Amino acid sequence: MRCMVAKQRTVDRGTLRGRALISTVGAEIRLARQRAGLSLDVVARAAGLSGVEVSRIERARAEWVSLLTLARLCSIVGLDLAARAYPGSSPLRDARHHRVLRRFHERIHPALGWALEVPLPNPGDQRAWDALIRGDGWRYGVECEMNPVDGQAALRRLTLKQRDGMVDGVILLLPDTRQTRLFKREFAAALNDMFPVSGSRALARLAAGKDSGGSAIITP
């Protein structure tokens, strides 16, 4: 049930953001068209659409509209459309991801606090920890990477989350795969700087109900 709820939240966020972007761009196309003195029919013919279709796009009544069509309409009325994706909310997680988290949870002391999908405390921040471990006076954010590739990008993201998440450190869970071993070798120096505690030591301390001693990479 938890997976289905997370999936719905992720889809809903994307849907709402997409609708808002379509509405904003449509309104800008309409205003630019009017300022240029262009009729709906003129713009429609240039774009290979009907006047009704352009009108629906301008009024955000066309969720079917493609990015290519929006770019064409913008160009016709004297605008340039720019689009770029930025880090946002946590992505949809699959069954493998949840298995790794469950295995790790089973190996730490049952007295430790454990919560899944914990939002960062800043209002409006869409980011969340995959899990959060709490002990007596300490807390660690837990992140699970199923296919680690770009070490620099991962370290930047985790450094910012640690800063904004008000935690004492980060526990990074990685699956025991060939890709993980290649990742750890390629980015060894940078990873050792951010995760100074060995995974075995951190896991042993957490299993005993103690603070891990610092950020660590663990393969459960």
Can you offer a commentary on this structure?
The protein is an alpha/beta fold. α2 packs across α4. A hairpin with an 8-residue loop joins β1 and β2. A five-stranded mixed beta sheet has the order 1-2-3-4-5. It has two domains: 13-76, lambda repressor-like DNA-binding domains (434 Repressor (Amino-terminal Domain), Orthogonal Bundle); 95-218, Trna Endonuclease, Chain: A, domain 1, CATH 3.40.1350. The two termini are 24 Å apart. It has helices spanning 2-35, 40-47, 51-58, 67-76, 95-107, 151-165, 178-186, 188-194, 199-207; strands at 113-119, 128-135, 138-144, 169-173, 216-218. The chain is built from nine helices and five strands. Residues 1-8 have low confidence and may be disordered.
Question: Topology of this structure?
Answer:
Layout: H1 2-35, H2 40-47, H3 51-58, H4 67-76, H5 95-107, E1 113-119, E2 128-135, E3 138-144, H6 151-165, E4 169-173, H7 178-186, H8 188-194, H9 199-207, E5 216-218
Parallel strand pairs: 3-4, 4-5
Antiparallel strand pairs: 1-2, 2-3
Helix pairs in contact: 1-4, 2-3, 2-4
Notable traits:
single chain, 220 residues, alpha/beta, 434 Repressor (Amino-terminal Domain), Trna Endonuclease, Chain: A, domain 1, five-stranded mixed β-sheet, 5 strands, disordered N terminus
